[in-house]
Write a structure and sequence with these properties.
This protein is α+β, with helices and mostly antiparallel strands. The protein has two domains: 1-31, no CATH class; 34-89, Membrane-bound Lytic Murein Transglycosylase D, Chain A (Roll). Helix content is 17%, strand content 23%. It is built from two helices and four strands, in the order E-E-E-H-H-E. It has helices spanning 49-57, 63-69, and strands at residues 13-17, 23-27, 37-42, 85-89. A two-stranded antiparallel ribbon has the order 1-2. Strands 3-4 form a two-stranded antiparallel sheet. Strand 1 and strand 2 (23-27) form a beta hairpin. Helix 1 (49-57) packs across helix 2. The longest helix is centred in the middle third of the chain and has 9 residues, at 49-57. The protein is elongated.
Length: 93
């Protein structure tokens, strides 16, 4: 269901039955792993996390690695203030 490399690919899937007896499958809560930044990145006014991820990982869909390293629940918060230094982790999952 999730693409290879997705942060949800290894998260457990479980299910429950609704009132009509239909099985509803869902992922359990994904716990944010300890992800140490390897270097800092100064956010510019036009930056977005997908463009930063493309620049450092060569993959815009790995923006979530940056979120994990900064313990960010709202990705846009990381780029909302130009000049802010955000942590950039290694590219491994």
């Amino acid at each position: 269901m999730f693409f290879k490399g997705s942060r949800y690919a290894s998260v457990e899937t479980t299910s429950l039955l609704d009132e009509g007896g239909h099985e509803l499958r869902y992922k359990v809560v994904r716990m944010i792993p300890d992800t140490e930044p390897r270097f800092g990145y100064a956010v510019a006014a036009a930056d977005r996390l997908d463009t930063i991820a493309f620049e450092v990982f060569h993959d815009p869909e790995r923006f979530w690695r940056i979120c994990d390293a900064n313990r960010a629940m709202w990705p846009a918060d990381l780029t909302s203030r130009p000049g802010r230094i955000i942590g950039i982790p290694g590219s491994e999952v």
